[in-house]
Amino acid sequence: MTRGDDPTPGACASTDCSLREALDAAVATPGGDTIVLGSGQYTVTRGTLPVYGEVTIEGEGMAQTRIVGTGNFDLIEVTPLGALTLDGLALSSQRQALKVSSGTALLRFVRVPAGGGTISAIGTSAPAELRVEHAVLGDALGCECGAGSVRIADSTLNSVLVYNGSADLVLDRVEVIGPTPALYGVAFTTSGTATIRNSTIRGHAAPLVLGGSGGDVRIRHTRFVGNTGPLHGSRDGMAWLEDVEFRDNIVDDARLANGAPAVLLAQDETAWRIARALFIGNRGGGGSGPGLIGSTVRVTAGGNLVMSDTTFYDNTFRPEVANAAGHAIGVDTAGDTAVFWLFHATLRAGPFVPDNAVASLLAVRGAAANLRIYNSILDGTCAFASGAGMTQAEGNLEVPGNTCRLPAATNDIDVPPMDLFLGPLADNGGFTRTFLPTRYSPAVDRGVATWCNIAGGVFSRLDQRRYLRPAAGIACDSGAAETAAVSDTLFADDMD
């Protein structure tokens, strides 16, 4: 390029060629074309820049090259069957920064500042494909991709929405970060599959929203931090979360008013499976009214939640909440079955839960609750109402008392707190911190073999750190971490 303004289009001469003229010239040539932009700003004033065919626009870098739209129009549009690569530049627009119509776009080393325009794609006549690598996008990215896909890696985003059709979503090493007015972190409502790995989602009122029906949603090695509302959805399918952390999620005033939990609202249709997780420092809304028990995790009528090898610590309600019940987990059937199963968990109330808390760990309401707890440590209290009870429990320890209604024949109840002998919450290996029992703890070798020796699924032989159970062939421990166990991974960084 030899000029940075947007004159009336003419020929793209070697000494006089604007970006619009270069795009026009690309239409007339067979095969792909590359347009090279130097450092500086390229100002677009004459309307949307259309992209036909295969085009690459190269800049000098996100901080050196800028394409700026100054009117009320979309900045760049990829026309049907077009293919655009943007590399090493920044975009800013009063409307959409990039619009893809049944085409393909790759954004590599691209920055769009907050307020600089959204990225959108629509697959109608053909699938839309979006690829993002090493980018910083300050506004939302949305795709109604048809049968296409969205794949994002090594990037920072404001929000990702993939909806309708059968598109797939893959996020690898991505930070999805608020700020206001962002509502959704990741919203996925297609019949395809979604995979989120090695990522962080923070600062959102709805960090993960699932809808529609279809393939599995799988999340691994991901942290949900500082969000102001829970994960939720009505997707007819499975959501698998493995090696995840939920930390310092505190509902804002709007979600406090409707009693939202801080981390997860498990409702009808979506079946949630959570393994090797840490819930810590979360503060929810709610109370003792119908459907409002459970500050951090709430399972309502028709909900289905199974968790294994998981630690809860210091989760409670916001201080404004009165008559609260279930300071970590609440199960409310309201006449319809709700499933909540817990395997190899360590639940501890923590120092900021009020001394007079009703159910500092778990509250259950309704006779239709299918509640099963196995090989777990319950350091706190439970409460039951409206005919609720424990469906089955084996291999557990309750400290102190027996408010969780564990059968004495198959569990250790009323264990004195001073006799629990758990180490501090610490990095004992794995993705998240754990409470590791000392060799004097009654949790050592207390687990029932039925619930720790079955490989795969929720009955995993791995503890929260991905260490193998049982250690040295001895009976497995109760709780989320196995004393004296060894890792199942070959590399220290847990590489597969």
UniProtKB/TrEMBL annotation:
Top-level taxonomic group: Bacteria
Signal peptide stretch: none
SUPFAM superfamilies hit by this protein: Pectin lyase-like
Transmembrane segments: none
Coiled-coil blocks: none
InterPro entries assigned: Choice_anch_Q_dom, Pectin_lyas_fold, Pectin_lyase_fold/virulence
Matching NCBIfam families: choice_anch_Q
Protein name per UniProt: OmpA domain protein
Organism: Dokdonella koreensis DS-123
Lineage: Bacteria, Pseudomonadati, Pseudomonadota, Gammaproteobacteria, Lysobacterales
